[in-house]
Amino acid sequence: MPTAITTCIACSTEAPVVMYGATELCICPTCGLGWLHPMPTNQERAEHYAKQYGLQNDILGNSIQAQMRRWSRLPEQLSLIADIQTLKPAPASVLDVGCDMGNFLDEIRRYGYSVAGVEPSESARSQAHQIGLQVFSSIKELCDDTNTLYDVVTMHHVLEHVDNPVVTLTELHSLMAPGGLLLLRVPDFSCFWSKLFKEKWIWFQPENHSYHFTLRSLLQVVQKAGFEIRKATSQRPNNYRTMKAQMLSSHSFSHSMNVTQSFKRAVSPYYQFVTGIELYILAQKTS
Ligand SMILES: [Zn+2]
What we know:
Oligomer: single chain
CATH architecture: 3-Layer(aba) Sandwich
Bound molecules: zinc ion
Radius of gyration: 19 Å
Number of helices: 10
Number of domains: 1
Order of helices and strands: EEEHHEHEHEHEHEHEHEHHE
Strand order of the largest sheet: 6-5-4-7-8-11-10
């Protein structure tokens, strides 16, 4: 049976159930956190990710799409690596939770970092294994296998997918070294475009996202898990360089696409650039 939760996990306020388009949501009147009502069970969630999420779920549905995605995210990843080099110079250990095929880990290990990942999608995980990355199916499997304490944990557009973000971040806190850094990004449910487009907003995806964070609710969740906030902002992740890289990548692989796919690939960078606002948090384990 799915679980019905009506108390906000961020601030403990009782929230009403409302219809958000065709989706039943609880929206906290105090901190603005939104969550699915009822919440999917862990088994439903696991089956969904095993079957539907990852490489195969895109317009090209094959390895070319995976290559396109890799190259289009590269500028963003290099910028993140530069930030991490400043904050935690190598040698240091990096854990990427929700690492997909491991593209980010593959890049950052070239700079002298030791790396590991967590990824529930079997197809993505097997791609990561093929390039020699250590990637686990869950945080629990990681805990059972290793005693490593990580210096940096990255989690990009992952926390909105989990059963209980406070529990997940608390587990990660226990896996981190003192002074360890958490770099977290999630869609910004309270941004202008989300309010304008409502359930049509690019990142309102109730089939994938169990939680919809506002800045206030995310700060409370991160602090509840034991972290101290170092930086918090609402930003456009798809910056100009990312958009250019997406266009170049589409152009390079255009011979593999039909007209509809080419059109979608040509338009989507602009749409994402304008409306895909996210929250970014840099937090630290201080005790
Ligand atoms: Zn709340």
